[in-house]
Design goal:
The complex is a heterotrimer of chains A (221), B (653) and C (305). Chain A is 77% helix and 0% strand. With 221 residues, chain A is mainly alpha-helical. Chain A has one domain. The radius of gyration of chain A is 19 Å and the shape is globular. Chain A starts with a helix and ends with a helix. The model of chain A has no long low-confidence stretch (mean pLDDT 79). With 653 residues, chain B is mostly helical. Chain B is 71% helix and 3% strand. Chain B has 26 helices and five strands. In chain B, the strands form two sheets. Chain B has a two-stranded antiparallel sheet with strand order 1-2. In chain B, strands 4-5 form a two-stranded antiparallel sheet. In chain B, strand 1 and strand 2 form a beta hairpin. The N and C termini of chain B lie far apart (55 Å). Chain C has 305 residues and is mainly alpha-helical. Helices cover 71% and strands 1% of the residues of chain C. Chain C contains twelve helices and one strand; from the N terminus they run H-H-H-E-H-H-H-H-H-H-H-H-H. The chains are: A mainly alpha (221), B mainly alpha (653), C mainly alpha (305). Chains A and C meet through helix 1 and helix 4 of A and helix 8 and helix 12 of C.
Chain lengths: 221, 653, 305
């Protein structure tokens, strides 16, 4: 069972790497959904003995939310805002991969220094910190607003996995609170993106930094 | 030991003789060259003897200099460094006779030979000195002699600039060394190496850093390497061989002696050397890939190999601090073996580049081509040297690196294992980059069609030049096949230098893999012979046909359509553009039909332009602020003197 | 008795290597709905080429003739280092995986120099791209082998693959899976398979490995094609040794299982070539950096245990 959990951790890190370099919006959404589902399965494996009914039900709720509801909301926001173009990262492919790898190494070192309780799976803390870093990377190196929401979701995945290290059997309280926040945030952000795109005809945050109208008047337009 | 002293005397005498005979160049050549060759033969005997027996020899003579004494020590470490010195200088002297024939009457050959022999003598003093004053005397003499030789073509602006840069680096290094030696010998009667006391924590760190910077400026690892790519191409071919093969190694020798003085070591020293060496070897190979002149490629390759040696020293230090003595001994052995191997193959490569320069008149890669047909005896030797430089079996470049790899996988606990992984990864990366750099340099210069008329009219090198190159090539092949036999001298040298008790035993542990490597090398040679024989048998009785190269039906191919140096490395240099910062002039096409256009690209000296030049400019601006002190008025200068005297009087009261 | 097995292993490898490209071509033909070349096509090609008279370009020198011969010698020597069915071959020693990488480097060095000797633009293009890919694939390959050494605790290939069984997968599955993926990507790049390079392309400007050997003919071309088959066998045996389920101890049974898995690896290469398109040239370094990332992850995982 332990090896299986380790395999899942590796899979999560591989998805972090893929997220850091992918340039296509739909694959980004699918990757985040997949990562959320896999993270949801993780507590069932890391627990000793047979899982509680509560834990199973909770995992089912999380998988539904992250695997079905959030992607549906993001796809809807994408379709209604008409953003079909790719989301090339601002930094190059090798730089992204090296940054992610470096973050993983730094997280391993950091994880060995933090005073945390012993967990079944040794790599939970580094994986979670690396996932949080990948979320930040997504937010800072992409220009489309949708990708920044996806980065926020990835950070939430990372925090969820980190919570596993602290409360192996009872992530529920913390997680329920976070999950509610995220759900509301994604819902609201979906609406906001639709309105932004309706107002400005695009959701490119690079162009959104031009806030003043009078500067446009200088060109005569 | 007396024989070593004799060789120094022979060198100094022959240099004086060559200088006095400078009116008749041919006789000056003879005096200088015979003196160098005789001194080499004379000096190799005691070096070999000490290496095989392991017993050091000392000699002390009275000297009236304060803090100094004429004490020489020939221990196995010095003997190990003296071996490539004498081999390379002897063969370089033989090479130089033919090389300098074309300069007879145009350049002061007597002075050149005098400087060369003084350089060799100074290096012998540096390797065998057992007193800091004697060491610095040899050091400065070496720097001065090399400065004269770098100025050989002083009518070229580039050579003057290179010589000045070299002198500045040497001077700065010497200052740092003087500071470090005075810190070490504070409490001793004279600055004898044996009388140095081990300093405490903070002072030890200061001493280590001073020595690292001081010897680093001579060894030439990044970021202290800026003089190497300028000075090596400026010096004549045989001098560049000696400078790159042995003179840069005096810095490494100094660092090893320093490590011996400063035991017990601190772990971060090892990490500093490891990381500096790793950066040097990867960046050196990368810069070598981007150069457009053959000798600059070789200069950056020297920086890369010095980086490998430094990295191995750092790995050994980290391992020793963490108690992994076997790993440490293997790493140090790899470093020393690579010193020897690099001297041999780099000497061969620089001699080949000198042959190209004297034969074709230029060493710009994009002006050469097709030299394998015009220099048929030099080409195989240069290609062999390139293969050795890329650490390819069965040549000697591989054995030193193999020992370092064995050390890196020596296995132990966490910090040492991590250091091993870093070292091995840097070696692998630099090996791949070096392979690209050397196939590019050798392929562009020697293979294909000549790109200019000068290359088409190139002539072969003289017989003595070929002799030297063939000897070095033979040594490269033999040392590559005789790996296990070298373990004894290397192990002895390591044990003598670092006093690691189980060093010899650990190094013997590498004998089995090295024996396999040698056997595999012999097997490789016989398999290649078998392949040739098979091909000859398949072609029996049939003569191959001849045609032009397939050009896809293009009616008028020219030599300019070949891939040249810039185009060969373009995918890689574009990928690494943020590091290399190529500057280029690209054609702007505005018409419908092609007209004349030009394209040029050049890799900058990144460290020099981005760091040293701005720093020097800031320093100069800062100094200008004080230029008001020098205004030329005599009365104010007298006032300065009076004020100073008054202040001194007040201070003493 | 102990000398017969390595000799038989070497002969088996030398004889069976040209079968692998045949398997790959048949799998590709199957995917394309064709009948495809015969399985033994490469044998027929080699026999034909040895009998042909070569044509040499007027620009070339001895380097053009020496390149294929020395390259082939290096690859045969590499075969002697590579274990067969989990058993060490004739040249098995500590650190032999480093020697293997350097032998492959020697083969590449010779091929590139022979290509530059022709003085043509196409060969230079192929050589330049080949060295570019080598800069990325060699560190990735090396890091993978280093990680394998760390996982198995051995320093020679024979030792590593002797220890590696199905049980190792049960304990260290993530690391070994990452390493297998990394080695597979390196195989595709080093053996000029789609997605790194298309072995069937006829446009010189898109060739990489094919362009380097464009001017060779006759026995020289036979050496090169045979050497390419040997290189495919080397990388294939690496992957096959990683996924071998168990060592029964009986040599015939292990050898048979090993050969079966080798054919499976060749079929997997064929499938990959059929379902993937060739990558844009500037993206191939990215693919190799991905292989490097896999190896690095495997090593980090292993070192952190």
């Amino acid at each position: 069972m332990n090896t299986f959990a380790e395999l899942i951790i590796v899979f999560i890190i591989l998805m972090d790497l893929a997220l850091a370099v992918t340039g296509s919006l739909s694959s980004c959404i699918k990757l985040v959904a997949l990562q959320g589902v896999v993270a949801g399965i993780l507590p069932l494996l890391a627990m000793h003995g047979s899982p509680h009914f509560r834990a199973v039900a909770f995992a089912a709720v999380i998988i539904t939310l992250k695997g079905a509801v959030f992607p549906w909301l993001m796809m809807r926001a994408r379709d209604r805002s008409g953003a079909r173009k790719d989301v090339e990262p601002l930094i190059s492919y090798p730089a992204s991969i090296l940054l992610c790898l470096g973050a993983f190494i730094a997280s391993s070192w950091l994880g060995s220094r933090l005073p945390l309780p012993e967990t079944n799976v040794a790599w939970i803390v580094p994986a979670s910190l690396a996932t949080i870093f990948t979320g930040f990377l997504l937010i800072t190196t992409r220009t489309k607003a949708i990708t920044q929401v996806l980065g926020y979701l990835v950070i939430e995945n990372g925090i969820y996995i980190f919570g596993l290290a602290l409360f192996v059997e009872q992530p529920m309280m913390v997680e329920l609170a976070i999950l509610l926040d995220v759900f509301v945030a994604v819902f609201v952000m979906g609406i906001a993106i639709f309105h932004i795109s309706r107002e400005f005809d695009h959701i490119d945050t690079a162009e959104l930094s031009e806030l003043s109208d009078w500067r446009r008047g200088e060109d005569g337009r | 030991m007396l024989l070593v002293l004799l060789s120094i005397i022979v060198l100094l005498a022959s240099s004086a003789l060559a200088f006095s005979l400078r009116g008749t160049p041919a006789r000056a050549q003879d005096a200088g060259a015979y003196g160098a060759a005789a001194a080499s033969l004379c000096g190799l005997l005691p070096a070999g003897r000490v290496l095989l027996t392991g017993t050091p020899e000392t000699l002390a003579l009275p000297w009236a200099v304060p803090l100094g004494s004429l004490s020489f020590t020939l221990d196995p470490l010095a003997a190990f460094f003296l071996t490539p010195l004498f081999v390379l200088t002897g063969l370089a002297a033989v090479y130089g006779v033919d090389y300098l024939k074309t300069y007879e009457g145009k350049k002061p050959l007597g002075l050149a030979w005098a400087a060369f022999n003084v350089l060799t003598a100074a290096m012998v003093v540096v390797f065998t000195a057992a007193n800091a004053v004697l060491f610095m005397l040899g050091w400065e003499l070496m720097a001065a002699a090399a400065f004269l030789l770098v100025l050989f073509e002083h009518e070229r602006e580039q050579s003057r600039r290179a010589a000045y840069l070299y002198l500045a680096a040497g001077g700065a290094g010497a200052l740092l060394l003087l500071a470090a030696f005075s810190l070490l010998g504070r409490s001793a009667a004279s600055l004898d190496f044996a009388l140095f006391s081990v300093p405490a924590g903070g002072t030890a760190t200061a001493v280590f850093l001073l020595f690292l910077a001081g010897f680093g400026l001579k060894a030439g690892f990044i970021p202290l390497h800026v003089w190497v790519p300028e000075a090596d191409p400026a010096a004549p071919g045989y001098v560049a061989a000696v400078m790159s093969g042995v003179m840069m190694k005096t810095g490494i020798y100094g660092l090893i002696r320093v490590l011996a003085f400063l035991s017990p070591w601190q772990e971060w020293w090892g990490w500093t050397m490891l990381l500096a060496g790793a950066a040097s070897c990867v960046l050196g190979a990368l810069f070598a890939l981007a150069q457009h002149e053959l000798r600059r490629v070789l200069a950056y390759s020297s920086i890369e190999n010095i980086g490998i040696i430094l990295m191995a020293l750092g790995l050994g230090t980290v391992a020793a601090v963490n108690g992994a003595t076997a790993m440490s001994a293997l790493a140090f052995s790899g470093a020393l073996l690579h010193v020897l191997n690099h001297a041999l193959f780099k000497g061969l490569l620089f001699m080949g580049a000198g042959a190209v320069l004297s034969g074709a008149g230029t060493s710009e890669l994009d002006a050469l081509g097709g030299l394998a047909k015009r220099l048929p005896r030099t080409a195989p030797l240069f290609l062999l040297g390139s293969a050795a430089a890329c650490a390819l079996p069965p040549f000697n470049g591989f054995t030193g690196e193999f020992l370092i790899y064995l050390a890196a996988f020596g296995g132990a606990a966490a910090p040492a294992a991590l250091a091993g992984v870093v070292a091995a990864l840097a070696l692998a990366a630099s090996g791949a980059l070096a392979a690209a750099a050397f196939t590019r340099a050798a392929g562009t210069a020697f293979l294909g069609e000549p790109r200019t008329a000068r290359a088409a009219g190139a002539h072969e090198a003289g017989p003595l030049m070929i002799f030297s190159m063939r000897s070095l090539a033979l040594l490269c092949l033999l040392l590559g096949l005789a790996g296990p036999l070298l373990l004894l001298p290397v192990g002895t040298a390591v044990a003598a230098a670092f006093g690691l008790a189980p060093a010899l035993a650990a190094v013997e542990g590498a004998a089995a893999p090295l024996a396999y490597v040698s056997a595999a090398g012999l097997l490789l040679v016989s398999l290649a012979a078998l392949a040739f024989a098979g091909r000859a048998r398949a072609l029996k009785g049939r003569t191959p046909a001849e045609a032009g190269t397939w050009d896809c039906g293009y009616a008028a191919p020219t030599a300019r359509m070949q891939y040249g140096a810039a185009s060969f490395s373009q995918p890689l240099t574009d990928f690494f553009q943020p590091i290399l910062r190529k500057i280029g002039q690209y054609p702007v096409i505005t018409e419908y039909f092609p007209g004349k256009a030009s394209f040029s690209t050049e890799a900058q000296a990144v460290f020099y332009n981005s760091f040293y030049m701005p720093a020097a400019a800031r320093l100069r601006d800062l100094a200008y602020r004080f230029s008001w002190i020098q205004h030329g008025r005599l009365q104010i200068y007298i006032m300065y003197i009076v004020v100073t005297l008054l202040l001194l009087l007040l201070w003493k009261l | 008795m102990e000398i017969i097995k390595p000799v038989v292993q070497l002969l088996a490898a030398l004889l069976l290597a040209p079968l692998l490209p045949g398997v790959i071509n048949r799998v590709k033909a199957f995917f394309a709905g064709r009948r495809g070349q015969p399985l033994l096509q490469l044998y027929y090609d080699l026999a034909k080429l040895i009998r042909k008279t070569p044509v040499y370009s007027r620009t070339t020198t001895w380097v053009f003739v020496a390149g294929p011969a020395i390259g082939l010698a290096a690859l045969v020597a590499a075969l002697l280092v590579m274990p067969f069915a989990g058993r060490p071959s004739a040249l098995s020693f500590d650190g032999d995986f480093v020697y293997l990488i350097c032998l492959l480097g020697l083969a590449r060095f010779c091929t590139v120099l022979a290509a530059l000797d022709t003085g043509a633009a196409f060969e230079g293009m192929g050589a330049s791209r080949e060295m570019q890919f080598a800069v990325f694939s060699e560190p990735a390959f090396f890091l993978g082998l280093a990680a394998l050494a760390a996982v198995t605790g051995q320093r020679s290939l024979g030792g590593m693959f002797g220890v590696l069984t199905g049980d190792s997968w049960r304990v260290a599955a993530p690391v070994l899976a990452l390493l297998t993926a990394s080695f597979f990507i390196t195989l595709l790049a080093e053996n000029s398979r789609v997605p790194a390079d298309d072995p069937n392309t006829h446009l010189e400007l898109t060739m990489i490995h094919e362009a380097m050997v464009l001017d060779h003919s006759g026995p020289d071309l036979a050496f090169i094609l045979y050497g390419a088959a040997l290189k495919l066998w080397l990388f294939g045996s690496l992957i096959a040794s990683m996924v071998l389920p168990s060592h029964s101890g009986a040599w015939p049974r292990d050898a048979a299982m090993f050969l079966l898995v080798m054919l499976g690896v060749a079929a997997a290469v064929g499938v990959t070539e059929s379902v993937m398109a060739r990558l844009r040239l500037t993206k191939v370094p990215y693919m190799l950096i991905t292989a490097f990332a896999f190896s690095a992850l495997a090593l980090i995982f292993q070192m952190g245990r």
